[in-house]
Amino acid sequence: MDSTFITPGGLDQPLLARTAAGSLKLAIAESAKAGIQASVDCVRALVARHEPVYGINTGFGKLAQTRIADDQLVQLQKNLVLSHSAGIGAPMSAPVVRLMLLLKAASPAHGVSGVRLEVIEALLALLAHDVLPVVPEKGSVGASGDLAPLSHLAGVLIGVGEAFVNGRRVSALDALPHAGLKPLTLGPKEGLALLNGTQASTALAIHAALRLQRVFDAALAVGAMTVDAAKGSDTPFDDRIHAVRGQKGQRAVAARYRDWLAGSALRASHIDCEKVQDPYCLRCQPQVMGACLDQMAHAWSILLTEANGVSDNPLVFADAMEALSGGNFHAEPVAFAADNLALAIAEIGALSERRTAMLMDPVLSNLPAFLVENGGLNSGFMIAQVTSAALASENKSLAHPASVDSLPTSANQEDHVSMATYAARRLHQMLDNTAGIVGIEWLAAAQALDFHRPLRSSPAIEALHARLRAQVPRLVEDRLMAPDIAAATALVEEGATL
């Protein structure tokens, strides 16, 4: 497997997607190595001065005023990793941990963290061999960095904690040989640099953004199917409407609806009907989904900047032989980005649920009640829509901004925190919900199309219909619905593009 070389600031969305998807062999570009070594030399020079420098020869947080003797500096870094490995909860998913490994390696490659190339390469070795540290999902407030999650990540490098190897949970000492590694001894500043930073919250948010793109694409496609299945109009997607408003996402989304609906014989069959306007859940899709698309684009710009930046503390500047204490570990940008993504996820689901409810109602859809023949004997999609409503309602609670909350930590030394890690983590629960909502709509819209046969929708929508029908047959009479919903939800997670 050939290596992909990474340079400081060179991470992009395709590389992040590849990293999340599976093991990837990465290496630090030769051009970055001199800067990395200079930062290490700077730390050594600062130690030799015997002046107090935070995190190098002092305690941490509220204990920053405590001086540490030179012969205890190695133990200081080990103790830091051990004491800060205080997370709880289920392990973070494999895609998130892969992203954490990449982001944690990319940050010290900038040459201002004082971390040896050997340590950076060890992180990349874990990634290349898919040796994934067990990182509990709870325990970070998003400042002073994602301390607990990153401690569990770093712990594996020194032979403590656990890791997943080929899906098995084993001790760090048993896992390291699978990556060709032995336990490392961390030098001055290295433990702190590994623990300090926003890489856990950023990895969680990036993985959510990657998932959201697929769910968003599927929601657009299924929304277009519902328009045709409900004999809705394609006039609301006319570019002239969106051009005069000027919202970039809205105009782009309207074009995608036009593409999905192009060539529909079903649409042509009622082009001269007396109905004047469709419900908002059909007619206002470009306005709502376009606004979501704009939020997604903005969040990506923030997350890519964060992924390509340096967020540990203190930072060492070799050219001036200085270590500067600051607050780049404060993950407020990530928290805001995650909160905005939460709004988009909730609205995608809310609009989809309304379209499903509209299809259930024979007054609005002119289709059999609950999309089933012999209603009464059969309940059809009645409770599937209830499930959709439950998921949409749950998302409303989860969409409450996490970034407005803060509890002081470290004896009030760290007195304002971002809650970015929770802000990003809860996105995945919301995505699970929204994928389920869109999956239920897909089932309902496909069922509604079946009632219009022999009329056909557009070639693109018919292909979407066939993709679902390859796994879920038409509902002729009541059957167990949960497997159908699970199958459709899995398809939504894969996305749907023309």
TrEMBL record:
Q: Kindly indicate where the leader peptide sits in this chain.
A: none
Q: Give its E.C. classification number.
A: 4.3.1.3
Q: Where is this cross-link: 5-imidazolinone (Ala-Gly)?
A: 143-145
Q: Name one GO biological process term.
A: L-histidine catabolic process to glutamate and formamide
What is the organism of origin for this protein? Piscinibacter aquaticus
The family database entries (InterPro entries) matched by this protein are listed as: Aromatic_Lyase (IPR001106), Fumarase/histidase_N (IPR024083), HutH (IPR005921), L-Aspartase-like (IPR008948), Phe/His_NH3-lyase_AS (IPR022313)
Pathway connected to this protein: Amino-acid degradation; L-histidine degradation into L-glutamate; N-formimidoyl-L-glutamate from L-histidine: step 1/3
How is the polypeptide modified once translated? Answer: Contains an active site 4-methylidene-imidazol-5-one (MIO), which is formed autocatalytically by cyclization and dehydration of residues Ala-Ser-Gly.
Compartment(s) where it occurs, according to its Swiss-Prot or TrEMBL record: Cytoplasm
Q: What is this protein called in UniProt?
A: Histidine ammonia-lyase
**Top-level division of the source organism's lineage:** Bacteria
Spell out the CDD domains in the cross-references: PAL-HAL (cd00332)
